[in-house]
Amino acid sequence: MHLKPDHAGIVGLDALDNGKFGIEIYAASTNPRKLLHKFTITKDSNGVSVHNVDTNATVVAAKFSKADEPFVGAVVLGQFIDRSGEMCNIQGKTDGNGAFQIVLPEGTMKSLVAKSKEGIEIPKRGVIVVPNPSSSSTIGPRKPLSIAIDIDSKNFASALNNSSNDARVVVLGDVSGSMEGSKMDILKKSFLKMLEDCKGKNKPVAFASWDSWVEWCCDSYITTDIQRTAAISWISSRMARGGNDMRFAIEEAMRKFPDAQDVFVMCDGDISPFNSDGGHEDVFKDVPRPVSSSNESSSTPYANSSWKMFRTRFSRTNFHFIALGISASTEMQAMAAAGDGSYEEKN
After folding, report:
1. Are 125 and 158 contained in the same domain?
2. How confident is the model over 210-254, as pLDDT tens digits?
3. Which domain holds residue 101?
4. Going by C-beta distance under 8 Å and a sequence separation of 6 or more, which residues neighbour residue 216?
5. How distant is the alpha carbon of residue 27 from its chain centre?
6. Residue 164 carries which DSSP code?
């Protein structure tokens, strides 16, 4: 007998007679079918012996867009390799929002691509690492691994959709030297669109540009028209200039806005001084302000800082990462997963 869960993940067992049953749970959109969990239940006049099951798996929620518009009805293909090395193929389809969801255990997705009938392809660069769910810092229902892939994107303002309407938001934009040119244009357009969207939703927002130093748009959350006018002028004056120190930028953000619920970090791939998968764990004190805006954190004593440990300092804040350009790293995706946030890839 084949049973499918509803939108809430609930499987009705009314069709089963009383007795003992072996249950196997498989991931949809996999070939051969990927077994997630197996167990035994007993059903009698008092009900069933098992009411809740943790498959020890994660929902991977991928959204594909082209020029900021959803990639609807596209075939999604890829491969998945679990931690034992067993491989299966992935095949599905995007819905009316350009979204594709699949439930997977710990492992790696690779070669993920969405293809339209017209032959247009939106590939996911690199791999998607599906973490061990037990390593999540989230308390309560497990969060999906949220990933967005957009080609020909004009801005990354849509990333704000990953925060609640009443959330207090901080946006950090990379202005290191490697952001010069079209990347800086996209950053400015994105800041302006985010400013407009937050006004429409009455959402408090703060903006900062960072290289090795941090420059704030305003000293408080932007909530008034006077602040918005000043913000527009500030955004237009952003220029690529210096080095890179993501740790100092995030610490500065949390000092200034300790009540921030969502922090969005946009950069083109340099996550210095963090290590997304390890690194040293001496991360519980703020680092000093770098001596200059051109300082490179990769050469500091706190280089190779453990992001997973650092993130625990601010457990009430979700950290989202927006990767811009072909050099943006897969490590940012792992940082978003550990930060209980979303990952967006803009090509």
Report:
1. no
2. 999 999 999 999 999 999 999 999 999 999 998 999 999 999 999
3. 58-129
4. 206, 207, 208, 256
5. 22
6. -
Residues 85 and 230 placed together within one structural domain of the fold: no
Of the given ranges (190-194, 229-233, 265-269, 322-326), which has the lowest mean pLDDT? 322-326
Nearest CA to 103 out of 21, 5, 3, 2 is that of: 5
- Residue 185, token pair as written in the block: 């244009």
Q: Is the peptide bond before 273 cis (omega within 30 degrees of 0)?
A: yes
Spell out a b/e string for 41-57, using b for 16 or more CB atoms within 10 Å of the CB, else e. bebeeeeeeeeeeebeb
pTM: 0.87
Q: What is the pLDDT of residue 143?
A: 83
**Number of other residues whose CB lies within 10 A of the CB of residue 103:** 21
Structural tokens at position 127: 């791999």
Task: Tell whether 185 and 322 lie within a shared domain.
Answer: yes
183: left (phi over 0), alpha (psi -120 to 50) or beta: alpha
Cα 287 to chain centroid, rounded = 25
Lowest mean pLDDT among 83-97, 137-151, 158-172, 268-282: 137-151
